[in-house]
Write a structure and sequence with these properties.
110 residues, alpha+beta, 6-stranded antiparallel sheet, two-stranded antiparallel ribbon, 2 helices, 8 strands, 29% strand, globular, disordered N terminus
């Protein structure tokens, strides 16, 4: 079963199939109940440029990844509320989150 065909399990235990995202690029998956869009095979143009202002950290920039870790992101996860961006690369059966040292935003309590 391809990842796009697999159902998503919500925090409340309900199952919801991801929907293909028709926006920024082909092959993206949208998980509305999680407020997440996953780009498993590419990073949309301009998305990586949001990292430095979003996290205020040199360790989160694509230039850092290329110069000091010698890796390039192969995919991205975008969370909408609050906005967070995770860049990752897949090597074999391992997923490596490149900006794992940056603090994610905290959701406001309601």
């Amino acid at each position: 079963m391809r990842p796009a065909d697999r159902p998503a399990i919500s925090w409340d235990g309900s199952v919801q199939a991801p929907t293909d995202h028709k926006g920024p690029g082909p092959g993206a998956l949208e998980f509305p109940d999680l407020g997440a869009t996953v780009y498993p095979a590419h990073v949309p143009e301009g998305l990586a440029d949001e990292l430095a202002p979003l996290y205020s950290s040199l360790l989160s920039t694509p230039r850092w990844f290329r110069l000091y870790t010698d890796v390039v992101a192969s995919g991205a996860i975008v969370l909408s509320d609050p906005r967070d961006i995770l860049l990752f690369r897949v090597e074999g059966d391992t997923v490596d989150v490149l900006n794992r040292f940056c603090s994610a935003a905290q959701r406001a309590s309601t």
